[in-house]
Write a structure and sequence with these properties.
The complex is a heterodimer. Chain A has 5 helices and 8 strands; from the N terminus they run αβαβαββαββαββ. Chain A is α/β, with parallel strands linked by helices. Chain A has 2 domains: 29 residues, no CATH class; 117 residues, CBS-domain (Roll), CATH 3.10.580. In chain A, strands 2-3-4-5 form a 4-stranded mixed beta sheet. In chain A, strands 6-7-8 form a 3-stranded mixed beta sheet, with no helix packed on it. In chain A, strand 2, helix 3 and strand 3 form a beta-alpha-beta unit. A 3-stranded parallel beta sheet of chain B has the order 3-2-4, with helices on one face. The longest helix of chain B is centred in the first third of the chain and has 9 residues. The chains are: A alpha/beta, B alpha/beta.
Chain lengths: 150, 67
Amino acid sequence: MSPRAACRLEQLGFHRVYDYTAGKIDWIAAGWPTDGPGPAEPRVLSAIDPNVPTCNLGDKVRDVRRRLGPQITSCVVINDYRIVAGRLEHLDSLDSEDPRPASEVMRPGPTTIRPSDNLGEVRERMRAKNVPQLLVTTPDGELLGLLYPD
Amino acid sequence: MPTSIDRHRLRELLDDGAQLLEVLPADEYAEEHIPGAKNIPLKQLDATTAARLDPSKPVAVYCWDAL
């Protein structure tokens, strides 16, 4: 729809016309502010827990374990721009002196959801499939936080 | 030919004074829109309604998604 509107504006004499092709859903999914009362049903955005243990792709497993302590057994692996690359899981079962970088040990490509997703529907699916948590990212993959089923 | 942009470029344009236009129906605009956007639904976009915009300034247009 917006490409047609942009062409229409040019026909009407506008010379500098830009088409934000990805549209409003992309803006909302990035967690950027909007005006208006919002949707009738809440979005994931309203329930994100931003407190997520993270480490960088190049961080050594032994250093991650020391920094996070024994209570935390998994963390999200991100790059310098907070783009999600993978997850380090079962940290407590890894050698405390493991010299490998997180990029070699992580499980790549974890499931992610967008903050613009319908909160009720996502939580229903999480409960049905017994998913304890999901990563919430922008459409570009930038980590925003975690969503829990309850 | 209109220039396709992403949201980061859109923010830059808005900071530089560009106009923003949502072309979705009025009820969708009323529910939620990008701050600063005006609303002219696509089916109503003609010379009369477009007079609400300044043709001497850049204008960025958007709808719901890329589909």
